[in-house]
Write a structure and sequence with these properties.
single chain, alpha+beta, 2 domains, nine-stranded antiparallel beta sheet, 36% strand
Length: 228
């Protein structure tokens, strides 16, 4: 005698199993599509941000001469293309560097850090060690400008170290903190300032990302996160 109840139960169970498999496949496919869409969105965002990113280097040697004023003392420095201007007096240390924005967007300088000697470690100073710019310095894309700053307190170690290095013609390392016109995409560019002859020359050394991972460093190196 045919047991229709058993057959019906088995058919129902089989249908439920098929439905479960189909649901799992649909959910898995949807999750995969969502991950692909998320990755595509991230790629598009990175591409968009790359089009709005300033990158600072020293200007070319053939770039025009520029003149900068230190308003507190009505002091002027003249900076030729690709060069720096340094002057140490008993009351102030004046510094300027001719720079060029080779990025694709307007850049705004936020702060600076200067130390004596060459720095070879692939790490930038902590952000809290940077000195804020007294005024914003804007640099248009594919154009030149001047970074300028001064030490005005002879009692500080930074003043004495910079003054001694400048008077002796020893190298200095400069870090510039800057970002885009909205204050984002912050970067730090490192420069070496040296005086091989009568003039001070500037040379870019390295660029660091502040708000995003460093693409040129291996995971786990100098604070870079390990992949999850």
């Amino acid at each position: 005698m045919t047991d229709w109840v058993t057959i019906s139960s088995l058919a129902t169970a089989g249908g439920t199993l098929v439905l479960a498999v189909a649901t799992f496949a649909a959910v898995h496919s949807a999750n995969r599509a969502a991950r692909v869409a998320e990755q595509a969105a991230r790629t598009a965002e990175r591409s968009m941000l790359a089009g709005l990113r300033p990158v600072l280097v020293t200007s070319r040697l053939q770039d025009p001469r520029q003149k900068i004023q230190f308003q507190e003392e009505d002091k002027y420095l003249v900076v030729d293309g690709g060069r720096a201007a340094m002057e140490a007096t008993p009351d102030a240390v004046y510094m300027a560097l001719s720079i060029r924005n080779v990025g694709t967007a307007l850049g705004v300088l936020h702060g600076w850090h200067v130390c004596a000697g060459n720095q070879y470690e692939r790490v930038h100073p902590p952000l809290e060690d940077f000195t804020d710019q007294i005024r914003d310095i804007f640099l248009a894309a594919d154009d030149i400008g001047v970074w300028s700053a001064a030490y005005r307190d002879p009692s500080t170690p930074a003043f004495q170290l910079a003054a001694d290095a400048i008077k002796a013609g020893h190298p200095l390392t400069l870090h510039l903190l800057y970002g885009d016109f909205e204050g984002g995409q912050r970067m730090i560019s490192q420069f070496t300032l040296r005086r091989p002859g009568e003039a001070w020359l500037g040379a870019p050394v390295r660029h660091y990302n502040v708000d995003r991972p460093e693409p040129r460093l291996a995971p786990g190196l100098h604070g870079q996160p390990e992949p999850s």
